[in-house]
Write a structure and sequence with these properties.
The complex is a heterodimer of chains A (115) and B (115). Chain A is mainly beta and 115 residues long. Chain A contains no helices and twelve strands. In chain A, the strands form three sheets. In chain A, strands 2, 5, 6, 10, 11 and 12 form a six-stranded mixed beta sheet that branches. The chains are: A mainly beta (115), B mainly beta (115).
Amino acid sequence: AQSVAQPEDQVNVAEGNPLTVKCTYSVSGNPYLFWYVQYPNRGLQFLLKYITGDNLVKGSYGFEAEFNKSQTSFHLKKPSALVSDSALYFCAVRDHGGATNKLIFGTGTLLAVQP
Amino acid sequence: EAGVTQFPSHSVIEKGQTVTLRCDPISGHDNLYWYRRVMGKEIKFLLHFVKESKQDESGMPNNRFLAERTGGTYSTLKVQPAELEDSGVYFCASSQEWGAVDEQFFGPGTRLTVL
């Protein structure tokens, strides 16, 4: 069965420091991977996706994610955190070649950036 | 371009009552999805429309949930009768083309509370 794991419920980081939000996945074939962010009282906003190609994917707001097939991971990173990055982050996977476009989400990681 | 809209933003109902949620996708998007997040857990897929047809309804929890997308435009999700465990945030999302690996654009969600 396909699944996504976000092992950390919350990540705390000081403003200006690098941040990492972890995600691992399990799919039967090649994955399509996504990161979404949810700000308070807002819907999910797309950050970036990995389909194929370069393992380092760049996305919105200075975020990037590294696809690692051997470790089945797709960690979200940013070199320098901002207080405004504080939000709930969701990793998701879609099965390559599946009959449906549905996304399988992780439980979310709350990122708190302290000034 | 207008985003995905959902109505209402909040709904509080008594157990046994009926509630209807509405989603208006981005104009021209063939794909429409419903997801649900319960009690701070992962966001779970409910169903997927391609135009007016149900492509995948494997996530619908039971026959108290009925989704429609007449004319392939907006969609409604009816819960009848509502139970306590139906409380959560219901998200709608849309994407442009069936078969393409497009990101899904999410609405702000409807927070449903069943008392």
